[in-house]
Amino acid sequence: QVQLVESGGGQVQAEGSLTLSCAISNHGFSAYVLGWFRQAPGQERKFVAAIDFTGTKTMYADSVKGRFTISRDNTKNTVFLQMDSLKFEDTALYYCAADTFLWREEWAPRPQSYGSWGRGTQVTVSS
Predict the structure, then answer these.
(1) What is the DSSP string of 71-99?
(2) What is the pLDDT of residues 41-64, one digit of tens each?
(3) What pLDDT, on a 0 to 100 scale, did the predictor assign at position 31?
(4) By the 8 A CB rule, do 118 and 95 touch?
(5) Whole-number percent of the chain with pLDDT over 70
(6) Of the candidates 32, 1, 27, which has an alpha carbon nearest to the alpha carbon of residue 96?
(7) Which is it for strands 10-13 and 58-60: parallel, antiparallel or unpaired?
């Protein structure tokens, strides 16, 4: 059973920065595609960013491109989401997700591609 635990959320002013972390408790961490998704109240869960198992392939939602950076440390079984120039509309509950599917850009943004999820960490951006 894969367990994912997010941390690093909080409240920040617009244009500020936060770094989210997701620790994954599984010895097969290096084989996982890892993703970040977010869900605002009353909205569906949306893709934010994903990274392949090598850490060399990444993709981002258009709304965060150029502001957010996803990375992973396979020695620490952790994936990160560096968020800069935060906007009010970035306010949401952020989830990390993991699975071992073969990296394809049409699959990485889909929530249904991931079988393991954390419980989320809240990010609140005040304008």
Answers:
(1) EEETTTTEEEEEE-S--GGG-EEEEEEEE
(2) 999 999 999 999 999 999 999 999
(3) 82
(4) yes
(5) 100
(6) 32
(7) unpaired
